[in-house]
Write a structure and sequence with these properties.
8 helices
């Protein structure tokens, strides 16, 4: 975790730093990480010791050195690893060990003298690099350290793989051809002069002409390997022939087969084919089924034809006169007869005929095109018997009918609305019992005398409130006084709680905006609901909202801040205001506006909806 720093604000007591809880939470997190970390104990180090930068720090110094350095596995010095083998020898991996300016003798582990400083000679096996001349026991120089050469005459055994490109005077009595590398791949590469190359052979074949009478047997093959001339079987591949054959004499050909359609210049008459056992089209006496496809003119005047289907006859007429029918009317004749008819016309049941009905004076009664009746031509009044209904709506949603004893308006779907500038309900004697007038005024009457009337101030009651135990004028007055005193005066009655809702514009996460919600001049605040995580503040005026806008979350407001309520939600949530808060508008001219300040805390860009559950306390 990175170090957490407390925001102390821009100045003392300004309120724009971290709240106390947030500050101490950061302190606790810093201490928790400090106490949970492994501390450096020089007697017991429990983690790696790694410098912050490469090659800038030392372990000890020239004047203050460590006495012993114990390492279990290996040490890296400049990228070269020093380690010990199973026998305890120091092994240099990735480099060589150079011993310079040795003074004195060198002894092996078994105390054998390896180097005699007096005679300056090595004894025994030597591993690693050796600078100087190597000589055999008989003083034969094997390696000349000055000239940098090896005495080849002293070599024995098999040589390893070496580069002998610069060697001269070498003879090999038994070298396998497969052991030779970098072998050439052409005749010229081997110096062969008595053979043709592939290119020379191909060119010779391409440009060569076989001499007349040659007995050479050669297949001719196309580039795609298709055999054109088979020299073994002495055949040509006919399937590969293209173009037109020249005029050849095929009179001696046998076994030739072809489709009749492939034959050209075929005759067109029986005589042309030499056929004598068939009748011509102009000299026939057929029986049974005869196919006349292709015939252009046939005379049936003297022929008898049986089982001829009407559907098989082509170019049939399309009119009555075309068939010679005289006992039927044409469509034009029927339409004219209907148009000129002066008596009633009866259309058979089930007929799909579309007919307009027109009165004698040409008034359209039934419009068959639009499917309508001319209501202005109906005889008034329209009489319906008992229980005969007038129905409205696709599914008979509303019905009007009389049952014989009661008149009924039966609305089964939605709300029945009766509207007008003035709507009256009357009794059988035509006396008004209820009137709905303009501006929302409603009146209940008894024998045309108003008893209960509504207005902008409340309800006006004329007469006594009956139903009391001992109705007297004094009791009526007391009841009226009680109702007036407990309903805000004027008999308006107690108010019901309601909701007021407002929506901000789209806000980025942690962004704030002013929001005005239409409510009441004064009200009791019961709950605040948001549709997502948000901070909501309610004020008495727009000025107090502006003055308190910069107050940080978690900081208490001043006593005169004009703040009615402040809530913070974590999602779609309802916060109960308990006990209920008293809210009011304190503008110079009080309005029903409830000034709000909303902060989006949803974690993303979104609008915020705020809903207040309130109770009106002032008209």
């Amino acid at each position: 975790m990175a170090k957490q720093t407390i925001n102390i604000g821009t100045s003392a007591n300004k309120g724009d730093g971290d709240p106390l809880r947030t500050a101490f939470d950061k302190i606790n997190d810093n201490f928790d990480e400090l106490y949970s970390a492994t501390t450096l104990d020089l007697d017991s180090i429990g983690s790696n010791m790694i410098p912050t930068t490469n090659g800038n720090f030392s372990l000890g110094s020239a004047s203050k050195q460590w006495s012993d350095l114990y390492v279990k596995d290996f040490i890296y010095i400049g990228g070269t690893r020093l380690e010990t083998d199973a026998a305890g020898n120091i092994v240099v991996s990735g480099g060589s060990l150079q011993i310079k300016d040795v003074q004195g003798d060198i002894f092996a582990d078994d105390s054998t003298k390896v180097f005699d400083s007096a005679t300056q000679t090595f004894t025994g096996k030597f591993e690693g690099e050796l600078v100087g001349t190597v000589a055999a026991d008989d003083s034969t120089v094997l390696i000349d350290g000055v000239a940098g050469t090896i005495n080849a005459g002293a070599l024995t055994g098999a040589l390893p793989a070496i580069d002998g490109s610069a060697l001269t005077g070498i003879s090999a009595s038994s070298v396998a051809f497969s052991n030779i590398t970098s072998k050439p791949t052409t005749l010229a590469g081997y110096g062969i002069a008595d053979a043709y190359t592939k290119t020379e052979v191909d060119n010779a074949i391409t440009s060569s002409v076989l001499p007349s009478g040659s007995a050479q047997s050669i297949d001719v093959v196309a580039q795609d390997s298709t055999v054109l001339v088979d020299s073994v079987n002495g055949t040509l591949n006919a399937t590969t022939l293209t173009g037109a054959l020249p005029a050849i004499d095929g009179s001696a050909l046998t076994g030739v087969t072809t489709a009749f359609s492939n034959i050209t210049s075929t005759p067109t008459t029986l005589a042309g084919y030499g056929i004598t056992d068939a009748a011509t089209l102009n000299n026939m006496a057929p029986t049974g089924a005869v196919d006349f496809t292709g015939a252009t003119s046939i005379d049936f005047n003297t022929a008898t034809i049986n089982n001829l289907e009407f559907a098989d006859i082509s170019t049939t007429p399309t009119t009555l006169s075309g068939y010679g029918i005289t006992d039927a009317y044409t469509q034009t004749q029927v339409d004219t007869a209907i148009t000129n008819a002066t008596s009633s016309i009866v259309i058979p049941s089930g007929s799909s005929q579309s007919i307009d009905v027109v009165a004698a004076d040409s008034t359209l009664l039934v419009d068959s095109s639009n499917g309508t009746l001319n209501s202005s031509a109906l005889t008034k009044p329209i009489d319906l018997d008992d229980n005969e209904e007038v129905r409205f709506g696709t599914d008979n949603d509303m019905r009007i009918y009389h049952s014989g004893t009661t008149g009924n308006i039966d609305n089964n779907t939605g709300t029945l609305i009766i509207s007008g500038p003035t709507v009256r309900i009357q009794d059988g004697a035509l006396a008004n019992t209820a009137i709905s007038a303009a501006d929302g005024i409603a009146t209940l009457l008894f024998e045309n005398s108003a008893k209960l009337a509504t207005s902008t101030d409340g309800v006006a009651i004329t007469g006594k409130i009956t139903g009391l135990t001992d109705p007297t004028d004094a009791q009526d007055a007391a009841t009226k006084a009680y109702v007036d005193a407990n309903s805000g005066g004027g008999g308006s009655g107690l108010q019901s709680r309601s909701t007021a809702t407002g929506n901000t514009n789209s806000l980025a996460d942690a962004a704030e905006a002013d929001l005005d919600i239409t409510g009441f001049k004064s009200y009791a605040l019961l709950t605040i609901t948001t549709d997502r995580a948000a901070r909501v503040r309610l004020y008495v005026s727009a000025a107090t909202r502006t003055a308190d806008a910069s107050r940080a979350e978690g900081v208490d407001p001043t006593s005169d801040a004009g703040l009615i309520a402040e809530v913070i939600t974590t999602g779609s949530e309802t916060v109960t205001i308990s006990p209920g808060a008293y809210g009011f508008n304190l503008e110079s001219t009080p309005t029903t506006t409830i000034p709000c300040r909303v902060t989006n805390k949803s974690g993303g860009t979104a609008t915020v909806q705020v809903t207040l559950n309130i109770l009106q306390l002032e008209a």
